[in-house]
């Protein structure tokens, strides 16, 4: 693939790095093995610079080249960071660099400072100038790094799960009108275990702003019981968002959640659905409540 398409713009050593990276990447996707990397020594400075230039000027594939840069350890990460924060690079290239940062060996490579990587990703996630895709992927990469560090029991204050939860919540509130960033923040909260999901439940049920509650509902795919309660929310837009969430994810999933709840909780939710079915003036919301009740009590 690379020899035919890119041999005119890269040297043999760069072509080899790209080919090897592509082969490893494909193997990872086909066999679901952990992504492995070959390491390159400092003697490969020319190859590194050539890969960076090729990526910046669009001569090399934006999906594989950042992964090849990861193979160069701290020097590769520095190159990825410079491209990711640069407004000169295209949005597609910047997104690919941010995604590749998830592959950096932050556990075993002592030359890489995880705290600095976290600061870079936080800066990108908050960058109003960056395109929403860059900000969303920065959030996802931050979550992936925190989860890896947690699994290895590494102590990096900026990248512990609780810090990421608070950061994702702040990003959600700050960018709730930007769908791709908002949804990424919700996904991060959902992937951060019980603590993250509790923060999301608080946004869905307790936040003073109806817009915040509705946006959190539109993004969730796991906190389903609170969504059922929101079918009876005092605000019409929140009720509509809850009904839309049920239709998006499928009412059968919600019915299964109801069946799995303790009897007291299940009965309370059923009572709420009956109230919605009998009183709500929105046909869409009433129809959703009717279908859920039908699945539960016939």
Polypeptide structure, described:
The protein has 298 residues and is mainly α. The protein folds into 3 domains: 1-112, no CATH class; 113-222, no CATH class; 231-298, no CATH class. Helices cover 70% and strands 0% of the residues. The protein has helices at residues 2-6, 12-31, 45-56, 65-70, 73-84, 91-100, 114-125, 132-151, 161-174, 179-191, 193-205, 210-219, 224-230, 236-249, 251-260, 263-279, 283-297. Mean pLDDT is 83; it is low at 6-10 and 27-43.
Number of strands: 0
Oligomeric state of shown chains = single chain
Beta fraction:
under 5%
First and last CA, distance: 59 Å
State the domain count. 3
Q: H/E order of the elements?
A: HHHHHHHHHHHHHHHHH
Any low-confidence stretches, pLDDT <50, length ≥5? 6-10, 27-43
Layout of strands and helices, then pairs:
Layout: H1 2-6, H2 12-31, H3 45-56, H4 65-70, H5 73-84, H6 91-100, H7 114-125, H8 132-151, H9 161-174, H10 179-191, H11 193-205, H12 210-219, H13 224-230, H14 236-249, H15 251-260, H16 263-279, H17 283-297
Helix pairs in contact: 5-6, 6-8, 7-8, 8-10, 9-10, 9-11, 10-11, 10-12, 11-12, 12-14, 13-14, 14-15, 14-17, 15-17, 16-17
